[in-house]
Predict the structure of Multicopper oxidase.
Amino acid sequence: MGGSILFTVLVPFLVTQFSLGLVTADVVTYDWRLTPIMTAFDGVLLQTLGVNDKPCDEAVIEIELGQEVEVRVTNELYEPTCLHWHGMKQLGTQEMDGVSGITQCFIQPNTTAVYRFKPDKAGTFWWHSHHKTQYAFGLRGPLIVHAPENELRTCERDIDEEITVQLGDIYHTAPTFGPALWDTIVINNRGRFNCTAAALNNLTECSPDQPLSTFYFHGGKKYLLRLINMAAMAPFEFSIDDHEFQVIAADGEPVVPTKPINSIFINAGQRYDIIVEGRNDTQNVDSFWMRAKGLSGLPWMVRSADTGLPGFNDEGLAIVRYNAASLSEPTTQQFDETVTVNEFDFTPAMMSVLPMIPADRSIVQFDITQGGGVVSLDGGEYHSLIIPDEPPLLTISNGSTTADLPASANARAIEYGKHVEVVLINNMNEQHPFHLHSHAPWIVGSGQASSMDVYNNLLPPSKLVGAMLRDVYTVPPCATDENNHCI
């Protein structure tokens, strides 16, 4: 058996502070220097990566739909880099997607590159480095595209305040072998690590009084929280004690507002827009915990909490406070019973009816635990991706074809404008989030099936009416035997 998930893709195949873009006509311009910085997000002093000598959670790209973004990036790091604009379609600007060695050349140290693109839809997105482990060490931030007033939905018109909530994981050192496991979970780059444990891990500079992120609510007010999972590894369970909320968008795609729920699963790279209403009964309790619980162990990942270093922290906390003068920390507890919605069970605001038979079908088997990650396309041999000497986008634009690329490029030609069904087969006993750049495919099925049934197309009927569009989707693990080996 192998865990598999199916989805159908319509392939249409000036200097300023970084927190405020310079607006010239319909272009918003940012001037960024990527720099090493010292931070203590969880109390432990580390060298991380920043923008203009500041933490990247402050490097927010915020524009109106219809405007172009221009980001001038100067690399002052000690290694190459590139930046990916997660959730941007980049139709006609593929060279701006930001994947080093694939759609562009590396931005070498002490050189500058300019990204310019125009978002095609409003919503919650993010940017991050797409080189090695740079985004795990801080090179990541929000990208928010606001809809014009006349295009707001009814559920968006009476919002009193918007708050961007960045969920992340912190690594005190780069992993030297085997699968990684975070040290701390942070909310808007703030969390806490036990300083006694830090000393055991040879981390001598640690502050035990690390402040947590605080959000101020008022009774009866409506808040739009833009949740972004910027973690390198950690999937989260997000909740706010004693508060329910409604999901109104997933990965930038509008959904019919859900029933009130009290918890949502959010995998790495995913985003949710949720509406929370401030409580009116806060006389006795004026502060509440906001929680991002990191999920470890199978089926989420091979590493479990008991394999972490001393002080391993699997829950990020922030404070929702109703009394600005109060300094006490919350004493609230999580809901006894979880009420949630599965990531594929939202109802899209715009319903689509997909064709019964796709124009093309591709089967992708993968295992990221073997040889740094291997992929098989349509039953072929497994290959690890080897970055070609020239980015394939440039090779193709210079007149070559997909067939001219080396097998290790794992390239697959598809026809512009056609519906393509892609079946992902996960050969691991842990889930894995999957992101297809420049696309938000319809998720038409998910579950477990034998590889033989996949290749013979003997799968349950696909959801062709009302399927969700997602640009990050969780591929479930394969079925396992008593030793957790795929069968």
